[in-house]
Every structure is written in C-alpha cells, then in structure tokens.
Amino acid sequence: MPVRAFIAGLAGCRLTAPEREFFRSTKPWGFILFARNIETPNQVRELVDELREAVGRADAPVLIDQEGGRVARLKPPHWPVYPPAAAFGRRFASAPEDAAAAARLGARLIAADLADLGISVDCVPCADLSLPETHAVIGDRAYASDPETVATLARAAADGLLEGGVLPIVKHIPGHGRATADSHLELPVVTAARATLEATDFAAFRRLADLPMAMTAHVVYADIDPDAPATTSPRVIGEVVRGTIGFDGLLVTDDLSMKALGGSFGERVRASLAAGCDIVLHCNGEMAEMAEVAAAAPPLAGRAAERAARALACARPPAPFDAGGARAAFSAMMAGGDAGAET
Q1: I need a labelling partner for 64 at 20 to 30 A (CA). Which of 150, 171, 195, 281 fits?
Q2: Tens digit of pLDDT for each residue in 239-250?
Q3: Which of 59, 184, 210, 338 is flagged as catalytic?
Q4: pTM as predicted
Q5: Residue 195 belongs to some domain of the structure
Q6: How far apart are CA 210 and CA 216, in angstroms?
Q7: How far is residue 274 from each of residues 197, 245, 301, measured CA to CA in Å?
Q8: Can 254 be counted among the known catalytic residues?
Q9: Which residues contact residue 198 at a Cβ distance below 8 angstroms, ignoring those fewer than 6 apart?
C-alpha cells in the first residue's frame, strides 16, 4: 500500500496492538511525539523503532516540538532545558552575531538530543513576529518583532538542526504573530492590511523560503481571504505561501484537531489538501479521529510526493561534534542573561 499524505500521533509511551495494525494498514508518511509519549531515552528509542517497523520504512519521519522554553517535549531529568526563542532575540539587540551563533549552537545541541533517539524532524524554527497584540500561545516562542531579526535567528536555528542531521519545519506560515486568539481553542482573525502583512509577517518567511518544510497557521487573514484560515485557503496558500513568500517546500498543516478548524475530520483533510497543503497533521492519537483522517488522506503523489522526497533529501549525517564541549560553550554564551538555559 502506498504512503498516505498524513502524519499521526499516538496515545501513549508504547505502541498498542490496535495502533500497530492501524499504522501498518494505513501507512502514514510520518509520526509526531508529545510529552505523553516520552518516559526515558531507551523507551523513546524503542518507540521510534516500533513506529518505523509498523510502516515498514526505516526513513519514516518522526517529528517532535522541541523548541526550548515552554514548548519542550523532552524534559529533565533525562534531557536539558533550553532557552525560548525570545532569549536569543534579546541578545540580538546588543550582540547580533553572538545571538545568531548561540541560536545555531543551541539548535545543534537539540539536534544531538533528537538524533540520539532516532527523531528526525523538529518543528522549529518559529518565525512568527512578537508584537504587542501577539497572543500568549506564541509569546516568547517568537524571536523578535522585526522580520530581519526573526529571519536571521530562525535561519541560524534551522542551520544548527541541519548540521545535526535533523530536519527543521518553519512555522506558522504565513505568520501567527498578529493573532489575538489561541488557535488551539478558537479561530483567530487578523485584520491587518495585506500590504502591512507583506512588509512584516510575510517578510520573515520570505527570507526562509528555501527551507525544506513549513507548517501552516490556522489563522484567517481577512484582507486576503475573510472566509477561511490559511490552512484551508487556496488564496492564502496559492497567492501568499507559494506566491509572495515563494515557499516551494513540503507544506504540512498545523494539527487538524485544533478547534480553529471546523467540519468533520474528513472535511478538514480534504479542504487542507484542496487548498494546496501537501500533508496533513493529526496529533492527539485519538483512534476514531485518526481513522477518519486516514480514510480521507490520499496516497502521497504528484508534486506533494516530489516535495516530500526533496525535503527528506536535505537530511545529512551529523558532522563530528563534541557535545560536552558544545554544551559548556553554549552555557557560557547564554550566561549572565535571563535565558534560563540549563545544559
């Protein structure tokens, strides 16, 4: 059976027999892990191996959100604490080169943590702007308020991941920073003029358009398409993401189970793919929902399959790396600030 155009979560720390059979029969393109799936390093390694065995593909992507700060699925005592994106943005204001070097090294260290577990994709960097109206769901996950700083630091983080053999996913394209609501809970509507968005929010992503993967924003941009969020808007994806921004990499939806989206899960899948997304993401591991997603998700084919193959081809083996020395160097870089890194 061909690979299908969806990424799936799972319920717990071990793959259940029904989950194994479901993944074997539906063949998702990849998987995503959350804190509920994490106990110890050995347990995660075994789980990752089981997931790939279930779909019969040793290169099946396994994703995680390991940003640093509040959004970190791997936590002490087994894994270090890393600073949030905003810490690098604050450092950038006085020492831009040092901040970019620290962002790159921090991401390289995260990549070492992930590669040790077999996790191949990190949903980083967050290229949303930090603005006065930005909802707390983004908050310090954003590097800064201006697109140039954001793009510079996001690029550094993406480079650090790639150097460590982990693929980055830039998010939330074309920008979540002006949203005043949490898309996990409701549908945000941004009323800023298109010209303003193109000069600010979209500009950060435009400078990152060559990255291999991006994740959409469940956000309505009323001056472009007042009726649909970016994820399900052919106009936003066609005119903005593929057009103004120029992103031609693999486009993955944000989680379809978020309350920003309406309709059945089958309708969400079909609307997302019809709008121009390549692969849909479903995170919560609820079997009934996953079954509906899988039933609606087609085989990965055509341009979507080409983009997926191109994205995976960007992965390269990690370069030689002294993790201990790098952690000491990273701690020194961030010392004296308010970054909160404990490496």
Answers
A1: 150
A2: 999 999 999 999
A3: 184
A4: 0.95
A5: yes
A6: 16
A7: 24, 19, 14
A8: yes
A9: 244
**Catalytic choice (254, 255, 278, 282):** 254
Rounded (5°) CA angle 113-35-178: 95
Calpha distance 37→21 (Å, rounded): 18
Q: Could you read off the pLDDT of 43-95 as tens digits, one per residue?
A: 999 999 999 999 999 999 999 999 999 999 999 999 999 999 999 999 999 99
Report which residue type is found at 6.
F
* 25-29 CB contacts, 8 Å cutoff, 24+ apart: 25/1, 26/1, 26/294, 27/1, 27/2, 27/3, 27/55, 28/3, 28/4, 28/55, 28/60, 28/294, 28/297, 29/3, 29/4, 29/5, 29/60, 29/61, 29/279, 29/300, 29/308
**CATH number for the domain including 76?**
3.20.20.300
Alpha-carbon distance values, 312 to 271, 307, 330 (Å):
25, 9, 28
Report, in this order, helix, strand and coil percent for the chain, each rounded to 5. Answer: 45, 15, 40
Helix (H) / strand (E) element for 215: namely: strand 213-216
Angle CA 138–110–60, to nearest 5:
90
Q: Are 155 and 99 in contact (CB under 8 A)?
A: no
* Closest C-alpha to 46, from 122, 121, 120, 119: 119
Q: Tokens standing for 282?
A: 């479903």
Any catalytic annotation for residue 78?
A: no
Total domains present in the chain: 1
The reply to whether 343 falls in a domain is no
Helix, strand or coil, per DSSP, at residue 94? helix
